[in-house]
């Protein structure tokens, strides 16, 4: 019984020694190991590091492959080199994470052999999200034949009757239109009569016949006869006529951006750590 107890104790000590061996190996000064890396709470695979007391050294090329770039990163890299150079890490330039403080913080867990670093969002790349409502795929613009008749009758007495009416018909994407009216106590008269041809691709409208021309608020209006050509942005409901609002921001961790317009949630997008730009806000 005593022998069995001693054997169990020996096996327990051996197992504990085996579990502690990697930690002891990693904690050794100048040890080079490959560890899993998490950057700004996003797993980024494994990297080669060197343990230097409470400091960690990584290859500069590995840091740039992780997405660190831009003017701010190059400036921080220059200051790190000015603080002193480190021995090469696997024949490559080594950078001290401690020399990048406070813009870079890190934590090495010897129990799980994992490295977690948090870098300033200005070091990371930028992303652009377009919030513009895109044109529906495979949209079809039909050109069915249609006709319509609208009329309005008004009267202040049985003898004085006013009338207004309009008749239209479409064919091949073109509209033939005419209108007529009869004022109370007057005679029947023709109003506008024309043929309208819309070119959606070029946002152009042709009117052959009578047309009403109007300018801005300080201008005037007139009724003309002949052929008129005008730009009509309403022919394409997905055409953006004016530049839309844009917003830029920084995210240190994977985040959800919610866009509210007049208190109503209109969109929600996922952004990765780094700089981001929201384009064409729906306002």
Strand order of the largest sheet: 4-3-2-1-6-5
Could you name the ranges where pLDDT drops below 50 across 5 or more consecutive residues? 1-7, 9-27
Mean of pLDDT: 83
Q: Outline, from the CA principal axes?
A: rod-shaped
The level of helicity is: 10-25%
What does this structure look like?
This protein is an alpha+beta fold and 283 residues long. It is 16% helix and 48% strand. The protein has 3 helices and 17 strands. Strands 4-3-2-1-6-5 form a 6-stranded mixed beta sheet. Strands 8-9-10-11-12-13 form a 6-stranded antiparallel beta sheet, with no helix packed on it. Strands 7-17-14 form a 3-stranded mixed beta sheet, with no helix packed on it.
List the helices and strands and how they pair.
Layout: H1 2-27, E1 32-39, E2 42-52, E3 55-59, H2 60-65, H3 71-82, E4 94-96, E5 104-109, E6 114-119, E7 126-130, E8 146-155, E9 161-171, E10 174-182, E11 189-199, E12 204-214, E13 221-231, E14 245-251, E15 255-261, E16 264-271, E17 274-281
Parallel strand pairs: 1-6, 7-17
Antiparallel strand pairs: 1-2, 2-3, 3-4, 5-6, 8-9, 9-10, 10-11, 11-12, 12-13, 14-17, 15-16
Q: What are the salient characteristics of this protein?
A:
single chain; rod-shaped; alpha+beta; 17 strands; 3 helices; 16% helix; six-stranded antiparallel beta sheet; 283 residues
């Amino acid at each position: 019984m005593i022998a069995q107890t001693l054997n169990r104790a020996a096996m327990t000590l051996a197992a504990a020694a085996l579990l502690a061996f990697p930690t002891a190996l990693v904690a050794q000064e100048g040890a080079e190991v490959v560890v899993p890396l998490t950057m700004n709470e996003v797993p980024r695979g494994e990297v080669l590091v060197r343990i230097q007391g409470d400091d960690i050294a990584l290859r500069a090329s590995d840091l740039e492959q992780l997405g660190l770039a831009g003017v701010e990163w190059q400036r921080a890299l220059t200051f790190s080199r000015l603080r002193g150079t480190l021995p090469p890490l696997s024949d490559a330039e080594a950078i001290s994470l401690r020399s990048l403080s406070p813009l870079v913080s890190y934590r090495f867990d010897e129990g799980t052999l994992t490295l977690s670093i948090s870098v300033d969002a200005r070091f990371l790349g930028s992303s652009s999200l377009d919030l513009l409502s895109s044109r529906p795929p495979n949209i079809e613009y039909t050109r069915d034949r249609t006709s319509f008749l609208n009329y309005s009758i008004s009267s202040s007495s049985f003898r004085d009757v006013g009338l207004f009416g309009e008749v239209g018909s479409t064919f091949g994407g073109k509209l033939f239109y005419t209108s007529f009216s009869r004022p109370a106590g007057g005679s029947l008269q023709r109003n506008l009569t024309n043929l309208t041809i819309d070119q959606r691709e070029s946002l152009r409208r042709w009117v052959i016949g009578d047309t009403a021309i109007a300018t801005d608020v300080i201008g005037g209006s007139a009724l003309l006869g002949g052929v008129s050509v005008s730009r009509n942005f309403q022919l394409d409901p997905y055409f953006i006529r004016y530049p839309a609002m844009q917003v830029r921001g920084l995210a240190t961790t994977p985040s959800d951006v919610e866009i509210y317009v007049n208190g109503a949630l209109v969109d929600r997008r996922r952004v990765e750590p780094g700089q981001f730009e929201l384009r064409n806000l729906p306002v």
